[in-house]
């Protein structure tokens, strides 16, 4: 028995080592340095919602969220209010750069880098081993400051973590959640925020994100003790997300074949990727926007209809359906959140609003306002 099992064990170890080496090599290829971005600079953590100038607001309101072009991103969306995107990588450290590659993809497609990277440690993505309540606390902290609901994109264990955060926000683990300040790197004492729309105090529990997605979540990832609480929750999406897309790869031993359903109002869509896709390398899409043909294909993508990738380069065809679908949804909810902020500002009647703990009452006086400027407005204090 020992003679038979020993070669198998060695082969498995060899395979694991080769996989880790491949992760490092492919991630390195996907992490070519970013060129200086022409995208408008955005503050990583504005103190309060930034309202676009009238002209930019008008252009935002004319956009069709379901048909956002490359020019719309470059000339309109990237100059206006931008939600935070939280990337969640898939487990062991060698795969972390693969999710960073997706961050590079987003920046090359036109998304402001500062609204992806953590405002505290400047990292590109979050670990699936972090406390999901902490991530929920960051969502609350950012929403209170910007008036824009964040988005979450998770890969493998990171996908499971994204769903766990949704359940945290729904109060399925704890009845109260603390706000987490990523700049100070600590929880705040409060479990409430001042809603930037109603100007009233509300609990963190019950907040929602605009969009979330998970690819390759389930399967062997359930073997990790930190994910055991998700056994009966992973495939059920609560009302704490506007739209959720679950991606599965057939015959994926690592990620399983998870398909999702809502338990209320969330819009849930399931997408089966080709069986040729790699569980590990799906998000390694950093270089795709640098090929004009591939970039055009991605920008023309809509979730409906057939998607022919046969004319694309082989290296693109192994990732492009996932990248294009996620980018489509990000553009859509980026637009919707910006439009929501503009419409609210234009319809708002001045009222006495609550202050955040520790803030001066001057916040609600006429002297404290947002000054419109070309491009983005800047808070005046």
Describe this structure in words.
The protein is α/β, with parallel strands linked by helices. 33% of the residues lie in helices and 13% in strands. The protein is built from 9 helices and 13 strands. The strands form 5 sheets. It has a 5-stranded parallel β-sheet, sandwiched between helices. Strands 3-4 form a two-stranded antiparallel sheet. Helix 5 packs across helix 6 and helix 7 crosses helix 9. The chain is globular. The termini are far apart. 45% of the residues are buried. The N terminus and C terminus are likely disordered.
Low-confidence stretches: 1-27, 351-381
Quaternary class: single chain
Percent helix, as a range, is: 25-40%
- Reading the helices and strands in chain order gives HHHEHHEHEEEEEEEEEHHHEE
Shape: globular
Number of strands: 13
Average predicted confidence as pLDDT:
83
Strand order of the largest sheet: 1-2-7-9-11
The helix tally amounts to 9
């Amino acid at each position: 028995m020992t003679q038979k099992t020993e070669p198998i064990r060695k082969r498995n170890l060899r395979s694991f080592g080769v996989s880790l080496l491949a992760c490092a090599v492919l991630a390195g290829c996907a992490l070519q340095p970013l060129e200086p971005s022409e995208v408008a600079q955005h503050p990583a953590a504005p103190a309060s919602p930034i309202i676009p100038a009238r002209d930019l607001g008008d252009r935002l309101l004319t956009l069709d969220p379901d048909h956002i072009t490359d020019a719309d991103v470059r000339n309109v969306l990237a100059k206006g209010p931008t939600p935070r995107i939280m990337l969640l990588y898939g487990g062991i450290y060698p795969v972390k750069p693969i999710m960073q590659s997706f961050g590079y993809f987003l920046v090359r497609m036109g998304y402001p880098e500062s609204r992806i990277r953590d405002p505290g440690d400047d990292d590109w993505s979050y670990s699936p081993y972090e406390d999901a309540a902490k991530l929920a606390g960051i969502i609350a902290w950012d929403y209170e400051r910007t008036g824009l609901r964040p988005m979450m994109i998770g890969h493998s264990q990171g996908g499971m973590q994204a769903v766990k955060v949704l359940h945290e926000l729904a109060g399925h683990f704890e009845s109260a959640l603390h706000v987490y300040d990523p700049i100070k790197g600590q929880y705040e004492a409060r479990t409430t925020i001042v809603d930037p729309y109603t100007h009233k105090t509300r609990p963190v529990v019950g907040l929602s994100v605009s969009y979330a997605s998970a690819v390759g979540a389930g399967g062997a990832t359930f073997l990790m003790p930190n994910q055991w609480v998700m056994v009966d929750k992973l495939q059920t999406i609560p009302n704490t997300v506007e739209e959720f897309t679950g991606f599965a790869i057939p015959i994926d031993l690592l990620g399983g074949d998870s398909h999702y359903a809502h338990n209320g109002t969330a819009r849930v869509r399931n997408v089966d990727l080709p069986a040729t896709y790699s569980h590990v390398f799906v998000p390694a899409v950093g270089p795709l926007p640098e090929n004009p043909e591939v970039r055009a294909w991605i920008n023309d993508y809509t979730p409906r209809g057939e998607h022919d990738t046969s004319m694309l380069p082989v290296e693109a065809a192994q990732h492009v359906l996932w990248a294009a679908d996620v980018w489509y949804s990000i553009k859509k909810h980026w637009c919707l959140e910006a439009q929501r902020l503009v419409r609210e500002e234009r319809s708002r009647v001045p009222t006495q609003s609550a202050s955040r703990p520790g803030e001066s009452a001057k916040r609600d006086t006429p002297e404290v306002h947002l000054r419109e400027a070309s491009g983005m407005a800047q808070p005046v204090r």
